[in-house]
Amino acid sequence: TIHTWLERFNKQKPHSCEKVTAPVDEENWISHMEKIFDVMGCEDAFKTRLAVYKFEGNALAWWKAYKQAKGGDAWLVTVTWADFKKLFFLQFFFPRAEQEHLKREYHSIRQTTDLSAE
Q: Does the reported pTM lie above 0.90?
């Protein structure tokens, strides 16, 4: 059960995740979680739930809102660890608004460069 996994997980002293300020932070936290999961022999079905248990602050607020928007606990049980890692990076660390802002900035720079080349 999740309670057995949680007890074993906490004995490994997993790091919390409050906010991520650089891709390396996100990668280090995920690697830390995977190291713990490997040593525990953790089943994929429990990995996401155990990882988000260590969310605090901004990460926890983002997760609660995201999970609710997707359908709550019914959705959560369908999320694989691979899916979680993708959405953690794309939605929490690099949210859509930031992606769109960078796309617009890139196209603006590209248009300026194209015009100056003529």
A: no
